[in-house]
From TrEMBL:
GO terms for cellular component: cytoplasm. It comes from the Bacteria. GO terms for molecular function: oxidoreductase activity. SUPFAM superfamilies: FAD/NAD(P)-binding domain. It holds the Pfam family DAO. InterPro entries: FAD-dep_OxRdtase, FAD/NAD-bd_sf. Residues 5-351 form the FAD dependent oxidoreductase domain. Gene3D superfamilies: D-Amino Acid Oxidase, subunit A, domain 2, FAD/NAD(P)-binding domain. This is FAD dependent oxidoreductase. Keywords: Oxidoreductase. It comes from Ruminococcus callidus ATCC 27760.
Length: 370
């Protein structure tokens, strides 16, 4: 089976690119190595749609997404992606936290983001469930959150409706060049697919696949873990984080709380199938209860884990590859991909169609590592 554009990876980035291409009448084939669409980090994250705390090189993508796409995304995809733009509180309780948060806030404000430092009392006026332990916070009123599963599935379903083809359980093992350009995609089953352009958006697996045409993106696998609670009545709609990034999350439309967590042990996780640990969940719960004592008696329903494609300089590679014409990279998102995914899907389609991109990608080029 051939297509004008072949996308390797059926996460939210691949699905968003497929949607934007199919909407423009381009024939698209998406190959997903696992049996399930969105089986990687796309459906294993805290759902943050945030500008605060980001590297300045990523800011144009998230600012474009928030201004032009996220507010309309549910209508665009005919799916409720549960997008709430109710602000982001990043919490601190020590002088060191104040220093970290002030640095992040000043950096974001210098790049045009509406973010400022507030006192613990100001934070409690925004969210009365906060404990007295909170002495400072950064506040970004234009940040928010959405449902990763619904957003990924929304892009997938609408891309299919517009004519994109998806094949799951089709693990890509090799790219092949014809006359110097990337043209063919070979899978473990022995199938060979051919396209004019190949978008590689397969998370950490992108490193191995790109290496088959002599390209290396310096990234490693790092574990991300998440927990979800039972549903309770509505309490607050802000996106939450901390200065130490030990937990982050929000209350969902369903009523459950979803928290991403960081135990510090993630780089030492066993390879293979990503597994959550009792250590991480219990450590995160202690931190959550420190800031939100009213959540102490809410039951944790389940935990899960996924691999993050952590790039060497902590921002993604979104780029054509000059050495391999026809190849477009979209990997190394380092756990920051969900919030920027609407803009990334758009610019990937524009790169594939040889159009000027809506956002300047020069800081995210592959050749920055050379």
């Amino acid at each position: 089976m051939n297509a004008e554009v072949i996308i390797v990876g059926g996460g939210i980035i691949g699905c968003a690119a497929a949607y934007n291409l199919a909407k423009n009448g381009v024939s698209v084939l998406v190959l997903e190595g696992s049996e399930n669409i969105g089986n990687g980090g796309s459906t294993r994250n805290g759902g943050g749609v945030r500008q605060s705390g980001r590297d300045p090189r990523e800011l144009p993508l998230v600012m474009y997404s928030i201004e032009h796409i996220w507010p309309q995304l549910s209508d665009m995809l005919d799916t409720n992606v549960e997008y709430y733009q109710e602000g982001n509180l990043r919490l601190g309780s020590t002088p060191q936290h104040q220093k970290i948060l002030t640095g992040l806030a000043d950096s974001a404000a210098a790049h045009g983001v509406d973010v400022r430092m507030i006192t613990g009392d100001e934070a409690r006026r925004i969210n009365p469930y906060l404990s007295e332990a909170v002495t400072c916070a950064s506040w970004c009123p234009t940040d928010g959150h959405a449902n990763p599963l619904m957003a990924t599935m929304g892009y997938y379903k609408m891309a299919r409706r517009l004519g994109a083809h998806f094949i799951s359980g089709e693990k890509v093992v090799e790219l092949r060049k014809i006359k110097g350009a990337a043209r063919q995609v070979v899978t473990a089953s022995g199938n060979v697919y051919e396209g004019d352009k190949i978008i590689l958006a397969a998370g950490y697996e992108s490193r191995f696949i790109a290496s088959t045409v002599g390209i290396d993106v310096p990234m490693q696998q790092v574990l991300l873990e998440t927990l979800v609670t039972e549903a309770v009545g509505p309490m607050f709609w802000q996106m939450l984080g901390t200065a130490d990034a030990d937990f982050y999350g929000h209350q969902t439309e369903h009523g459950s709380f979803v928290f991403g967590l960081n135990s510090g042990l993630e780089p030492y996780a066993k390879p293979g199938k990503p597994l959550s640990s009792s250590i991480a969940a219990s450590a995160a719960c202690r931190g959550i209860m420190h800031y939100f004592p009213d959540l102490a008696n809410i039951k944790v329903v389940r935990t899960w884990a996924g691999w993050m494609d952590a790039c060497a300089d902590h921002v993604p590679v979104i780029s054509k590859v000059e050495e391999v014409p026809g190849l477009i990279l979209a990997c190394g998102f380092t756990g920051h991909g969900f919030g920027i995914s609407p803009a990334v899907g758009l610019v990937l389609s524009q790169l594939a169609m040889e159009q000027e991109t809506a956002v300047d990608l020069s800081a995210l080029r592959y050749d920055r590592f050379q």
